[in-house]
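User: Please predict the structure of the protein below. I'd like the answer in structure-token form so I can feed it into my own downstream comparison script.

Assistant: Understood. Taking the following sequence of 125 residues as input:
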Amino acid sequence: MRKFILKIVIEYIFLILFGLFIFIFTISNFNSAKIIRENFWMFFTEILTFFPFIFLLGLFYIWLPKEKIEKHICLFIMEKGMQYKKSFYLDAFSTLKISILTFEIGLFGIKFSLLTRLLLFLCLF
């Protein structure tokens, strides 16, 4: 039992330290503790809004038979020569990219996000 508790503490040491610092700052009545809590809660809720979609995407590939997915969804992509596994990675990437972009737009604004995407696109070519 002690090894199990020690393993959990080691795995979550940063989260425990973060919570401890926020607790100490709140007790000490620092103004920055309120800002840190609000930012953490905003980011946490934004991540939780996208987590169910990513989870459902994984369940989608587990529950549905491979043949049905190939027949209805991946047919066009597979005609072009793409494998089934690669289409899964493409779906997962697009799901994650959408959540990252909305997070970035919410944090930095749409002008910054469009500018960085344009610069990254130009750097590739």
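That's the full token string. The chain has two domains: 1-47, 64-125.
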